[in-house]
Amino acid sequence: MLLKNAPSDVIKAIYDTCFDAVIRIVLQSDDHSEMQNATQCLASFYIRGREEILSWAADSGFTMRSLLDAASRLLDPDLESSGSLFVGSYILQLILHLPLQMAIHIRDLVGALVRRMQSAQIVVLKSSLLLIFARLVHMSLPHVEQFIDMLIGIPAEGYKNSFVYVMSEWTRQQGEIQGAYQIKVTASALALLLSTRHAELNKVNVQGHLKSSAGITTRSKAKLAPDQWTLVPLPVKILALLADTVIEFQEQAMADDEESDWEEIQGGVAESNDSLLYSAADSSFGRTTYDQLEAMAKAYNENEEDGDDDDLLSVSDQLNGINLVNYLGDFFVKFVHGDRQLFDHLCQSLAQAQRDAIQTLLRR
């Protein structure tokens, strides 16, 4: 609270007074609430103070070592998940605000992230760690292939390598990720990964769709026979997830249209049931593709504005300015022009609604 929007001299005074104590809480406390608050406090220090805080201690390397020590404790796979709850945003802000200092630690960081994610018991924690991987994909541009290679070279318990593990988790969790910023970063990162056409992509199979079971599934039957999923190639799954993102935009745009129609009726501009039906059909299907895209982008942006304007995850990240509808549209166009045969092959495995959603963007 004190650090929020404080001028540099106030942040420096608070740093001199309690930075050391906050670090000790993260390193020594077993109280999860204390650790969560201390993690957020440390993030506020370098979000507000940026690289300037690295020169405040008498020992020039003290602050950075302290921040890394805190990250190491929070990423300890043996630490209970609730104690690590805010480590995702903490690490993300370190990468964004101290990129040069963090660059030399990326490989070790990725290994620690994988181990923490494998032991995580809280879905929100896993999602926040996946966001870091997505942001690292963007930071690896224009050499995303090298980031994939790095993941392939890092072991993951129970999996061929960390790339297989991370993509298995990412594609399973993507549909549950919440927040406009988080969706922008993760969806665009998936597009970047697919655009590499890295040979390893085709060697990875991930969770597809739930197999339907015959008859009524009782609790006892569910215990004896847990859910079974199909396996699909990773490129197919990524393309399906991107198509699902577009479908969500379309549904949000249509929902806003219906809400607008309802507001007109409430205002006294009532129509007969038949004329209202035709009006809704015209507004949804009669407009141009350009109008549809504009409505999708508008609906998404309005949804984004409903969030917390002071969200520390997004406030200083340039990726928050992405128009995801346009970004995915450009991606699909480049994909088609780059390898039409591969694109058509992958689309054959998609549902009709997913293919239609992609075609909407290709017809821009």
UniProtKB/TrEMBL annotation:
Cleavable signal peptide: none
UniProt record, GO biological process: protein import into nucleus
Domain Importin-7/11-like TPR repeats positions: 2-329
Domain of life per record: Eukaryota
Pfam families (UniProt xref): TPR_IPO11
Organism listed in the record: Salix udensis
Name assigned to this protein: Importin-7/11-like TPR repeats domain-containing protein
Gene Ontology cellular-component annotations: cytosol; nuclear envelope
